[in-house]
Amino acid sequence: MKKIHNSKYPFYLLIIALLTWSVFLMLVWQEQGFLLNWDEVDYVNVTKLGAWANYTEKGSLSPQEYIEFSLSKLRKSQENEYSLPPNYSEDKDPFLLRHFHPPFVNYLLSIIDKTVGTSNERIVRSVQLFGALIFTLAVLG
Fold first, then answer.
1. Are 141 and 9 in contact (CB under 8 A)?
2. Checking CA distances to 23, which of 2, 12, 44, 55 falls within 20 to 30 Å?
3. Using alpha carbons only, what angle is made at residue 79 by residues 77 and 85, rounded to the nearest 5 degrees?
4. Does the residue 110 lie in any domain?
């Protein structure tokens, strides 16, 4: 069986990728100026804690502390005093702010935050564009 080599194939892939990218840009551009949804706000806030805080889970409860906290909520003390470490803040807990997702995306967001800037919208839109590029490469690759 003879293999047919079509030299125009890479060109067509490039055209399809550029068209997909353009359509996505037009769809995302409409979102410019809108407020971030609650997921995006949390992802941006955890990104601003930095890659190291996400890697080490700095500020999160340890498994033992989490179990103690859960058990104290189950007991529901009448004063509603739950067993939490004195310096713990849910607003600084990377694990909660990521909504229990692994931190890889936040590593990418941290890089974007350091290179593009700290604008919440820029960070999220950069990730959306990066996701569109990855999707296009995965489909066409």
1. no
2. 44
3. 80
4. yes
Distance CA 109, CA 116 (A): 10
Single-letter amino acid code for the residue at 114 = K
Evaluate whether residue 85 is within a structural domain: no
The token pair at 11 is 């060109």
Average pLDDT for 128-133: 74
> How many Å is the Cα radius of gyration of the chain?
22
Q: Of 22-26, 104-108, 116-120, which one has max mean pLDDT?
A: 104-108
Taking the whole predicted model, whether its pTM rises above 0.70 is answered as no
Reading the block at residue 6, the tokens are 């079509």
Whole-Å CA distances, 28 to 124, 128, 130, 140: 11, 8, 12, 21
Distances (CA, A) of 120 to 31, 32, 123: 13, 11, 5
Report yes or no: 102 and 37 within 8 Å, Cβ to Cβ.
no
Range of the domain at 136: 27-63+90-140
Residue 47 forms part of a structural domain: yes
Number of domains in the chain: 1
CA separation, residue 98 to residues 45, 111, 129 (Å): 9, 16, 20
